[in-house]
Design goal:
Layout: H1 2-6, H2 9-23, H3 26-38, H4 40-46, E1 50-52, H5 53-57, H6 67-79, E2 83-86, E3 97-100, H7 102-109, H8 112-118, H9 121-124, H10 130-135, H11 143-148, H12 152-158, H13 160-184, H14 186-190, E4 194-198, H15 204-212, E5 217-222, H16 224-227, E6 237-240, E7 252-254
Parallel strand pairs: 4-5, 4-7, 5-6
Antiparallel strand pairs: 1-3, 2-3
Helix pairs in contact: 3-6, 8-13, 12-13, 13-15
The protein binds S-adenosylmethionine.
GO molecular function: O-methyltransferase activity; protein dimerization activity
GO biological process, one term: methylation
Pfam family, one: Methyltransf_2
Length: 266
């Protein structure tokens, strides 16, 4: 084989390994999706934060024919640090114990809707056509629109289930990251009196700030159909508008995740 004449066999084997690692990288995210779908993090948590395979099986619903495959799934999830594994000493018989890691602690508490959103087929499938996207000139550069015929925010307007998926996912991430920001940088919020979250969605971030710092007048600027569904009874003011036309004045302008899927027309 010409290839083998010109390059060392070991170099090519290393190259094949790199290719396989990248080719099968999707198995990591699909294993994570399975863990979320099956509630494995919750099962371990309910067992005190550590569980053997039979203990996980007592809490997770699997078809009996698939039980032998759970160990393989857990192997992927431990090599990717979603869970950790502690083997029994070689001198003793017994089952390995799976434990929560910082990553899976987040799956128990807050990040499930975010992972569920990002691993949804509607969000993942457009990337199968990334090569085509590079070859075409499109009036709208949004890859989601190339695949589904409309931008993310147009689809949220038309499809209630998709809207819930996106809003819950974004809100869970906002809630988590704002809790962290408030804990680490409280003085930043103490020194301001107003804040506007541009493209703030259902207002999870603004509400978290408003509750922690009642002296900060918090507002959300978003598109009409998002503001129409804004939760009532909060101190946050929801404003309908297009960020490309104007942004109401405030001490702080928050732009979180706003580079993704922004639409110019309201
Ligand atoms: C990726 S989401 C971010 C939501 C929120 N900031 C968060 O981090 O959870 C983008 C938001 O921008 C809004 N949006 C899109 N185009 C907009 C525009 N032209 N003017 C104002 N808001 C817009 C969408 O409706 C959506 O709520």
């Amino acid at each position: 084989m010409q290839l083998l004449d010109n390059t060392t066999t070991q170099t090519l084997l290393d190259g094949q390994l790199d290719l396989w690692h990248t080719t099968f990288a999707f198995m990591k995210s699909m294993a994570l999706k399975s863990a979320v779908d099956l509630g494995i993090a919750d099962a371990i948590q309910h067992n005190g934060g550590a569980a053997t395979l039979p203990e996980i099986l007592s809490k997770v619903k699997l078809h009996p024919s698939k039980i032998p495959n759970l160990r393989r799934l857990m192997r992927v999830l431990t090599t990717t640090n979603v869970f950790s594994i502690q083997h029994p000493p070689t001198t003793e018989e017994g089952e390995p114990v799976y434990k929560l890691t910082p990553a899976s602690q987040l799956l128990v508490s807050s990040q499930i809707p975010f992972a569920t959103m990002l691993l949804n087929p509607m969000i993942v499938s457009p990337f199968f056509e990334l090569g085509t996207w590079f070859q075409r000139e499109l009036p709208d550069p949004c890859i989601f629109k190339q695949a589904h015929g409309m931008a993310v925010w147009e689809l949220t307007r038309k499809d209630a289930a998709f809207d819930t998926l996106i809003n819950k996912g974004l809100a869970s991430d906002s809630q988590f990251i704002l809790d962290v920001a408030i804990k680490l940088n409280a003085e930043v919020f103490q020194s301001i009196s107003s804040l506007i979250d541009v493209g703030g969605g259902s207002g999870a971030a603004a509400q978290t700030i408003s509750k922690a710092f009642p002296h900060v007048k918090c507002s959300v600027l978003d598109l009409e159909h998002i503001v129409a569904k804004a939760p009532a009874g909060t101190d946050v003011q929801y404003i309908t508008g297009d960020m490309f036309e104007s942004i109401p004045p405030a001490n702080v302008v928050l732009l979180k995740f706003c580079m993704t899927g922004i639409t110019r027309t309201v």
